[in-house]
Amino acid sequence: MRPFSVLTGPATLLPAKNIDTDIILPAHHLKVLTRRGLGGAAFHTYRFAPDGGVLKNSPFNRPDGLVAPIIIAGENFGCGSSREHASWALDDFGVRVIISPRFADIFSGNAFKNGLLLIELPQSAIDSLVAAGTEHITIDLAAQTVSTPGWGSIVFEIDPFRKSCLLGGLDEIALTERLTAEILTFERAHEERAAWIRPKLRQ
Amino acid sequence: MKAQTLYEKLWDAHVISRREDGTCLIFIDRHFIHEVTTPQAFDGLRAAARRLRRPDLMLAVPDHNVSTQSRLTPGNAESAAQLAALEQNCREFGITYIPITDARQGIVHVIGPELGFTLPGLTVVCGDSHTATHGAFGTLAFGIGTSEIEHVFATQTLWLRPSRTLQVLVEGRFAPGVGPKDLALAVIAALGAGGANGHAIEYAGSAISALSMEGRMTLCNMAIEAGARTGLVAPDEKTFAYLQARPWAPAGDLWDEAVASWRTLVSDSDAVFDKVIRLDAGAIPPLVTWGTSPEDVAPIDGAVPDPESFAEPAKREAVRRSLAYMGLAPGTKLAAIDIGHVFIGSCTNSRIEDLREAAAIARFGRVAASVRQALVVPGSGLVKRQAEAEGLDKIFIAAGFEWREPGCSMCLAMNDDKVPPGERCASTSNRNFVGRQGPGARTHLLSPAMAAAAALTGHLTDIRTFAARPLQESLAL
């Protein structure tokens, strides 16, 4: 996982609620065998017309032609399909932080495991931040703050484990492997408690 | 001992280790894998030179990216490569693989229970958000991402925080023409598409007990559409009867032992849920979606709402976008909306009861001339075989439906079955998202009976008035 510390940059505004992972990455891009190269297809229907032309009023259009590293979205962002391809696409597209009142559960886990920082803030705080301007937002993970000039800053909550993993860029599987003995003990007791639990195909 | 909900019992039986912040390391009893979300996880294992810990707890089947017209490998190179990768990865890591030519092949959430690989009391995961389907058996089942798949491959565990608990209590009897799909939509409408985020749903009450296993699967399948990763129904005699003698179900003494332990899988009568909602089954009308979120539900005799009628600004914005995409004006009567495509299938509604329900309507007529495509896609080879034994295939074919091979098909636009841009589809699947059934495709979610009725009339149709018509016609003779 790529470590995250401090980031300053502009935000893209996606105020609708229930933006699903089919919007973040349509299913016909799920035929890939690797994690790379999905950024071009991210938010395809928000960026391109059905004929493939660039949408003039896309929220992703910026005068400088760059991709804003922050997204400010409506509630329940990332709902729907469990496809981690959505997180890979966001990462490849250049998004590092998403701010929303609430994220969908599966998306939240996937995003974290790919080093994306998800920040939950109340809608009122988001409205106030957006009103203050979204060109120079600073996210400080260690301090757990979102700030922007002339507005001040607000503290966000984050799971301490996720925070330490993001700050250090840690590999979760390697962490779990330290508990291999405990897993083995559990596994034996589990199968002793319920002899039927191991799958066995009838002949 | 503190009274516990079913979810809490299942959770506690699988905790290996608990961190101070409440996150637990959970043991995983079964892992279903398919072609779309696993290649990168296998690559991760190889890159880190890790072994796959318990291949015996995994079952693999191709479903999302398969052709429903032919059992041959698809002609397009990308799909063929993804299917070949699954087969090769399973061989390399010693995982049981059900090939596309096998009669047991089908949608992963149909075949798991059908083969008895899914059992009550287990933790079940799959890289697919509709894994909650297996919760119909009193199984703690949930969808996971590819990094989590890799974690399960390597350790047979996952780090998770326990969900809050939400009980959906449904009492009473369904009105004629109303069934599990309408209930699933009614629950989503009541909770909202994100209303159950962070929660595990347990469905209970007399209306749930009365549901068949197929109906319970339809209901649990759509838990994720309200934001819940897990949906549960406590196992009962119907559950045991369904599972007995299935290929991977325990046999002999082990079966008796298993059933005895499954009987304990109920929420204690004094267990406390974090949230409870109540629905009256008898008050639910046949439902259909009008927008691009599964919460956009209305009775079939209702109309498309006005975006300005929603209080919340973020929802108004979402509905404006939805109606523009759907090509619908506020106030349009739902039963007046013409459709050009019909899809009967998906992990939500492709089981034998769903096909019987659709066939019972299809036998009254022919697919309307204005309907360009009407697909019936059984959920598995075994469902297909059963349907054919009952003559359902002949009813569908005689009525002008296409009778296909098993797969995810037109649910998600990643195989050959797609709805063309701007076209409208009456679909028994689970998601009406923008582009879900194809770029620019417009989806209306509904029950198998209503999908079949829409195919015959060419427009969204109230099953209650439709079902009365064939009867009158036969009386007129």
Structure characterization notes:
The complex is a heterodimer of chains A (203) and B (477). Chain A has helices spanning 21-24, 44-47, 85-93, 105-113, 123-132, 160-168, 172-177, 180-193, and strands at 6-9, 11-14, 70-73, 97-100, 117-120, 137-140, 145-148, 152-155. Chain A has 203 residues and is α/β, with parallel strands linked by helices. Chain A has one domain (6-170): Aconitase, domain 4 (Alpha-Beta Barrel). Chain A has a four-stranded antiparallel β-sheet with strand order 1-6-7-8, with helices on one face. Chain B has two domains: 6-277, Aconitase, domain 3 (2-Layer Sandwich), CATH 3.30.499.10; 288-476, Aconitase, domain 3, CATH 3.30.499. Chain B is globular and about 55 Å long.
CATH topology (fold) name of the largest domain in chain B: Aconitase, domain 3
Count all strands of chain A and give the number: 8
Write out the strand line-up for the largest beta sheet of chain B, numbering strands in chain order: 5-4-3-6-7
Shape, per Cα inertia axes of chain A: globular
Query: What's the domain count of chain A?
Result: 1
| Rg of Cα set of chain B | 22 Å
What top-tier CATH class of chain A fits best? Alpha Beta
Please provide the count of β strands of chain B.
19
Task: Summarize the SSE layout with pairings.
The complex is a heterodimer of chains A (203) and B (477).
Chain A: E1 6-9, E2 11-14, H1 21-24, H2 44-47, E3 70-73, H3 85-93, E4 97-100, H4 105-113, E5 117-120, H5 123-132, E6 137-140, E7 145-148, E8 152-155, H6 160-168, H7 172-177, H8 180-193
Parallel strand pairs in A: 2-3, 3-4, 4-5
Antiparallel strand pairs in A: 1-6, 6-7, 7-8
Chain B: H1 6-12, E1 15-18, E2 24-27, E3 30-33, H2 39-47, E4 58-60, H3 77-93, E5 96-97, H4 108-114, E6 123-126, E7 140-143, H5 146-155, E8 157-160, E9 164-171, H6 180-191, E10 199-204, H7 206-209, H8 213-221, E11 230-232, H9 237-243, H10 253-262, E12 275-280, E13 287-289, E14 297-299, H11 313-326, E15 341-344, H12 352-362, E16 373-376, H13 381-389, H14 392-399, E17 402-403, E18 424-427, E19 442-445, H15 448-457, H16 463-476
Parallel strand pairs in B: 3-4, 3-6, 4-5, 6-7, 9-10, 9-12, 10-11, 15-16, 15-18, 16-17, 18-19
Antiparallel strand pairs in B: 1-2, 2-8, 13-14
Helix pairs in contact in B: 2-5, 6-8, 12-14, 12-15
